[in-house]
Amino acid sequence: MEDAQPRLRGMKIDDSSTVRSGVSSESGNDFADSPHPPPLPRTPAPLAYVLIRWLFRFVLGVFYSTVVVEGAENIPEDGVPCMLTANHCNSLTDALLLVTTVPSSRRSFLRLTAKDTQFGRGTFTSWLIESAGTLPIKRPKDHKGEKVDNSVVFATLIRALEKGHMTVLFPEGMSRYWPQIAELKQGVSRIVADTLTRQKDNPKFELAIQTASITYLHRNLFRSDVLVTFHKPIYVSALTHPDLIAPSLPTTPSPTPSAHERAIRSLTATIGTSIRSGILDAPSWSVIRLANTARRLYAPLGTKLSLGDHVRLTQRFVDALMGKRAERTWDEIAGVQGGEAASGLKGAPAEKKRERETRPDVKRMLTEEVLKTPLVEKGKKDGLQAGYFAVASPPSSVKNGDGARTEDEADDEELERLRRDLKTYQDLLYLHGIKDDRIRNPRLLRRRTLLKRLLVRLVGSICLFTISIPGLCLWLPILWMAKREADKLVRKGPVFDTYDEIAQIKLTYGLLTGLAVLTLSSLLTFPFLPFLNLPFLLGLMWLTLRFLEDLFSSLRALLALARLLMLGKRQLVLLRSMRADLHSRVEQLAVERAGLPRDAGVFVRERERRWKRMGLGAVEGGLRKWLGFAAFFDPRRRRKKDWNEALKLFDQTEFQEDAPGRLLTVDGGVTGVVLMARNRDSKRQIVPSQRKEGKRYRLRRS
Length: 702
Description:
By secondary structure, the chain is of the alpha/beta class. The chain has helices spanning 47-63, 92-101, 124-131, 151-162, 187-198, 259-276, 285-298, 307-321, 330-337, 342-346, 350-357, 360-372, 383-386, 407-432, 436-440, 447-492, 495-498, 502-525, 533-567, 569-592, 610-613, 622-630; strands at 11-13, 19-21, 66-70, 82-86, 110-111, 113-115, 135-137, 166-169, 206-216, 225-230, 234-237, 325-326, 375-376, 661-666, 670-678, 683-688, 697-701.
């Protein structure tokens, strides 16, 4: 079986075609003694492509608050034949993100593909796709289920690969709404196989498959965050992967797949595993919601996680809540890196374990390795048998001989209770309109503290709104037009068919409206600031956007403090006791199932302040205080406290698939019902105007 599967650099493949990421040692690496062939001559990018890349680098930087790029150094340099594959959940925005995040120093030009229905429509989006040199791909669903022929396009892609270009394909085949990645099509692997077949007589030809993971925390919300991770590429060639070469003679039909077919399936599985390792992949939105709640309890607000750690930590809780277990625990990894065997840790004194957990050198080494340790299906300790992304088995109902529950059954019931309690706790926070960090803070139990903070937030909000008024005159037409067109799109069809195109619509109409607003404003201000009006207007709009982020953050805190004041001390104490119980159970889940340490601080990556980087750490007095004040206006300063926030007064935690109504009962008689109602223009949340039963209800925008 091993001969029938491609030997992929940096990947381990077992006999059952289940793949997991790994780093091979030099002695076991098939490519350690064979350097890559020299790259082909660099191909200059067309002028239209360069303009589109610069334009949308600016547009995406405005729409999304932070676009974090990881692993850009893994991208093969220009001239190396390369196929870029990624997950697909945000329509045209995915392609634009890849175009703008792949450094031009690594690849000057990306050969894109898109569904053929996007071409020849006479719209701005159609012109944009055609100007970038995109190739049309036919899909059966767009042609009434009829058989389609993409042989001409695939031949063009193969010729581009032979010239050393980078081509882009999304192996899912279509953009999706749901959080779980779709089953990958074999088109990428077959193009790779056809390319190697054409180059089978060229021993120096080597093709790189660059996988990427795109994670949107809120793909359609203004000023949300995006993570783009480029993984280590997979190198294949006719010399090292002969089974990918198509047989010259037709094979006779057989009930078992041929070696060539098994190699294609194995390569597709490898690509899928690599892409999944960097995204949030869950069977439903409700699981994502529970995992976010568990992560907040484990690493509360103030734990300075990078966006990559935020995503990977959330995915650990997704897998743990679905019943999987880590192959190795924190103590086992610490024992290996600390020079002791894992078995020796079990018998070590408790003081010695705590001392090792607090060692900073061990923490730095463990952070990346722990997040890469696979979680496997219950009952299968070997990751090669279960696979990192296997679906968890349903709870077992087998009992032992005396009729008592087995240990596995008790664990499953405890996990189910934890999921139910996490959901109830998050529903209560959603009902009251507050966040977990407000419950965690004991100082907010005092009404004097609440009133003092309310006053500070109110004054700050008024000041921020006042200085934002001039720039708001420029932003309001843009925001109104983008929302208007997005609402029209949502009303056209079901959410699973339109939700993934909302960001594309907002980007397109926001860009066109912004250009119109800038043109009109430049003409009106030209007599007062000739030739300086355009830079002034751009600077004003950018500063206003930053002030709006501060304003919304202040308003969110103001509303939360007001609700805490109305909530009452008795209800707040009850929520605090519920949180304390859930916190201990989530810590146990993190240690026993997710393979994480009890202390979430090991994932903290402290960032030095700007004045320290400038060598002013020893400056005392007024200058140091002035630098702290000036940093408030630094455009690079992050305004949001949580990666999950966007430019909204209320965080989005509910999605379309969630139940339309749920009853919550707290402390006997204090109830609330969360209902989602749809109208023509917005989604509204029906919440009780007072927390007691029998009172009337009011509408509040969610």
